[in-house]
Write a structure and sequence with these properties.
The complex is a heterodimer of chains A (about 400) and B (about 350). With about 400 residues, chain A is of the alpha+beta class. Chain A has 9 helices and 23 strands. In chain A, the strands form 6 sheets. A 6-stranded mixed beta sheet of chain A has the order 6-7-8-3-9-10, sandwiched between helices. Chain A has a 5-stranded antiparallel beta sheet with strand order 13-12-11-14-23. In chain A, strands 2-1-4-5 form a 4-stranded antiparallel beta sheet, covered by helices on one side. In chain A, α3 packs across α4. The longest helix of chain A has 18 residues. With about 350 residues, chain B is of the alpha+beta class. In chain B, the strands form 2 sheets. In chain B, strands 2, 3, 4, 5, 6, 7, 8, 9 and 10 form a 9-stranded antiparallel beta sheet that branches. A two-stranded antiparallel ribbon of chain B has the order 1-11. In chain B, α1 crosses α2, α7 packs antiparallel against α8 and α11 packs antiparallel against α12. The chains are: A alpha+beta (about 400), B alpha+beta (about 350). At the A-B interface, β6, α2 and α4 of A face α7 and α8 of B. Bound molecules: adenosine-5'-diphosphate and magnesium ion (MG). Adenosine-5'-diphosphate (ADP) binds next to α1 of chain A.
Chain lengths: ~400, ~350
């Protein structure tokens, strides 16, 4: 077991190309479950592969424990990695796959057998020890890959999107199994995923990355409640935080936010958290409201100036809750000239902003209806339009 | 196959024939003896064939079609007649099976072989031992095994290096190597011959083995296959602290079985059937240096009468390639390399 430390680590694949990882500073504690999360291509795998020694560090220092490992070959780092495609040895049985590293290390036969079976036992693979990988289901292969890592009792576990090839149900199950195994072995874990739900549910701390740059490292709660910038605010949470271009008005004591013909009073408690709001009266900022910050008439006890009437484009009843989709006639919030989170299949329109409100499932709302929603503005977030930094 | 029926006179088995005038079977005891054709003076159209040594000149001379011919006294069926000798040729001496004293000389192609339909395993023995095909077979097996194993080993090493080890000039070197596949072998024969001459390997099996242990085609084949193996498998092995050498032999080579089987089969067929280069390198007077293809061509030359032996030799030469192909073909379709991934 060991800590992993990045000191201004950068990685450039081509001499003149962009930096896949840009001056990363990150301290991963001994025994910690650290999740690296971010959209595809943000450099999480690259960061992980540098820990493994599969990619060279272009600049900066990488330490495992107290040891500088920049030039240590992968095999000498005492780490184990689970790959996205599992990378099992296809011609070896489950037993041989799991014990290969011990064999290479010339561990005694009896000990190999004992440790292999202990790992297999932990993962429920005892009945499959003599099978080849091709005779296993996806979930079983995933377990073999984990077994191969566990059996070595390494200093650090590395996992690169290990669950992305499983179906949704299995994913949830494996998620909790991985959490349990890590807790039981108490080994430092660096876990890469692009799925923020995985990140939030699994990590002791979560490191959010964007375009090779670390955005924020914090525990999931903090990440959710105090995002360090517009990107983290938009990336963490599902459905995502609603980001709306608003103009601040009113007074420093009781400011208002105007957008698309609506005006919303801002609770002073929000101004306490975001004091710069008081200085920005009259200018445009980004208002961040999570879907659960809305509630429907009857469910709230809010002053009248914190309610707005919206026309509902689409009401999605999901049982326990309902999602109300609203389109606002304000340009979408952009970061570096593009919508903050640009995902495939997203609406390309940037002249309107879509908002999702989450309400209790007992309410029946039809698409097309106009309803009055209350907004808990004391929980609202405010960001600078240009820099994306919070106004605190 | 139609084969002459045989009879054992002493230890040897001899082919049997019948003459048009009787149903008695005769054994061909002597092939290739000198035969004289006599024509009786009183019946010039009749031909009597006898051993060259038979007949005595009477000293008389007769003129036939303007040529002067010596008159011989020959014995036919117990009577002596006068005849002239129209031609010397070669034929066989036949002995009757019923009456060992009944001996005839005749051209082999004018008598009817006694035919029997069925396998005759002695052909194999004869061709292997009497015709020295056994030695050629040993040579071919030796050459083929060494060439094929050499090709496999060098192709694996080269292919792996070109696929996965980064070194300066890898790309151009690979192109150069691959380019050599485009040079037809005929162009290389003379330079290669000169090289062998300088090294002193003329008429030596080394010349059939060493230049062929390296295969640009095989290296290319192995490289392509290694490239197609997901790099993560190798990375996983690296993290398991396996050395390059161990990764190659424990992970990559077992996964490359289909490619190796393909390479081995083609290498085998090429080495087994190669004819022209052995013909150039091995002296025709050195039967101990012959490979199977050379021995077969000698056996089946233009004047060959031993078609049975040619067929037996051909069978011997054909069987191993067929077996190899049957054995290797299941690997051609199998591709296990990707089954370890999701
Ligand atoms: N082997 C490579 N050669 C060149 N560029 C690469 C290589 N691997 C990744 N990249 C680039 O580096 C960036 C980060 O990639 P990666 O770390 O794989 O992202 P992620 O895992 O977060 O999706 C991407 O822009 C990707 O195109
Ligand atoms: Mg990745």
């Amino acid at each position: 077991m060991a800590e992993v430390t990045f000191r201004s680590v950068s990685k450039q694949y081509d001499g003149d190309g962009p930096k896949a990882v840009d001056s990363l500073d990150l301290d991963i504690k001994d025994g910690e479950f650290m999740v690296l999360v971010g959209p595809s291509g943000c450099g999480k795998s690259t960061a992980l592969r540098m820990i493994a020694g599969l990619e060279e560090v272009t600049d900066g220092e990488l330490l495992i424990g107290d040891r500088l490992v920049n030039d240590v070959p992968p095999g000498d780092r005492d780490i184990a990695m689970v790959f996205q495609n599992y990378a099992l040895y296809p011609h070896m049985t489950v037993r041989e796959n799991i014990s290969f590293a011990l064999e290479v290390a010339k561990v005694k036969k009896a000990e190999i057998k004992a440790r292999t079976e202990e790992a297999a036992e932990m993962l429920g693979l005892m009945d499959y020890l003599d099978r080849l990988p091709k005779a296993l289901s996806g979930g079983q292969r995933q377990r073999v890959a984990m077994g191969r890592a566990i059996v070595r009792s390494p200093q650090v576990f590395l996992m690169d999107e290990p669950l992305s090839n499983l179906d949704a149900k299995l994913r949830v199950q494996m998620r909790s199994e991985i959490i349990q195994i890590q807790r039981r072995l108490d080994t430092t874990m660096v876990y890469v995923t692009h799925d923020q739900i995985e990140a939030m549910t699994m990590g002791h701390r979560v490191a959010v990355m964007r375009l090779g740059v670390l955005q924020q490292v914090a525990d999931p709660q903090e990440l959710y409640q105090r995002p360090a910038n517009l990107f983290v605010a938009a990336f963490i949470g599902s459905p995502a935080m609603n980001l709306i271009n608003v103009t601040l008005g009113g007074t420093a004591e009781r400011p208002t936010a105007s957008f698309a013909g609506h005006t919303l009073a801002i609770d002073p408690r929000a101004v306490e958290r975001y004091p710069q709001v008081a200085d920005r009266i009259g200018s445009s900022v980004v208002l961040g409201l999570r879907p659960e910050h809305f509630s429907i008439e009857g469910d709230f006890d809010l002053p009248a100036d914190q309610t707005v009437e919206f026309e509902i484009d689409l009401a999605e009843a999901m049982g326990a809750e309902a999602h109300l989709h609203i389109t606002l006639d304000v340009p979408v919030v952009e970061l570096d000239g593009a919508p903050v989170i640009a995902e495939d299949g997203d609406d390309v329109s940037t002249s309107t902003t879509s908002v999702i409100a989450r309400i209790d499932g007992i309410h029946f709302v039809r698409s097309g209806e106009v309803v009055k929603l209350g907004v808990k503005t004391h929980l609202a977030h405010f960001f600078d339009l240009d820099t994306g930094l919070p106004l605190n | 196959m139609l084969l002459p029926d045989d009879v054992d006179v002493s230890d040897e088995s001899l082919p049997l024939f019948t003459f048009p005038d009787s149903s008695t079977r005769f054994a061909l005891v002597d092939n290739d003896i000198s035969v004289a054709e006599f024509r009786p003076l009183d019946d010039i159209d009749r031909i009597i064939r006898l051993d060259v040594s038979s007949g005595d000149k009477t000293g008389d001379v007769v003129t036939i079609d303007g040529d002067e011919e010596d008159v011989f006294a020959i014995e036919v069926d117990g009577t002596t007649i006068e005849a002239y000798r129209s031609r010397l040729t070669s034929g066989g001496r036949f002995v009757s099976l019923d009456d060992p004293a009944d001996e005839r000389v005749e051209l082999v192609n004018l008598v009817e072989p006694v035919q029997q339909f069925g396998p005759r395993l002695e052909n194999f023995e004869e061709v292997l031992i009497d015709k020295n095909l056994g030695r050629s077979l040993t040579n071919t097996v030796l050459v083929t095994i060494v060439v094929v194993s050499g090709q496999i080993v060098t192709s694996i090493l080269g292919g792996y290096a070109f696929a996965r080890i980064k070194f300066k000039g890898r790309g151009p070197l690979f192109l150069l190597y691959l380019g050599s596949v485009m040079v037809p072998f005929v162009v290389l024969i003379i330079p290669l011959f000169q090289l062998m001459l300088q090294v002193g390997w003329l008429d030596n099996l080394s010349a059939l083995i060493i230049p062929f242990m390296f295969s640009a085609y095989g290296t290319f084949l192995m490289r392509q296959f290694f490239i197609s193996i997901p790099v993560e498998i190798e990375e996983a092995a690296l993290l398991d602290n396996a050395s390059r050498w161990k990764i190659l032999w424990r992970i990559m080579v077992p996964l490359a079985r289909p490619a190796i089987a393909t390479l081995a089969t083609f290498g085998f067929l090429y080495a087994w059937n190669s004819f022209f280069w052995p013909l150039v390198i091995i002296n025709s007077g050195n039967p101990d240096g012959r490979v199977l293809s050379l021995a077969l061509s000698t056996l089946g030359g233009r004047s060959s009468t031993d078609l049975n032996l040619v067929f037996a030799g051909a069978m011997i030469a054909m069987t191993p390639p067929i077996l190899v192909f049957l054995f290797a073909q299941r690997y051609f379709v199998e591709n296990s390399a990707s089954s370890g991934l999701k």
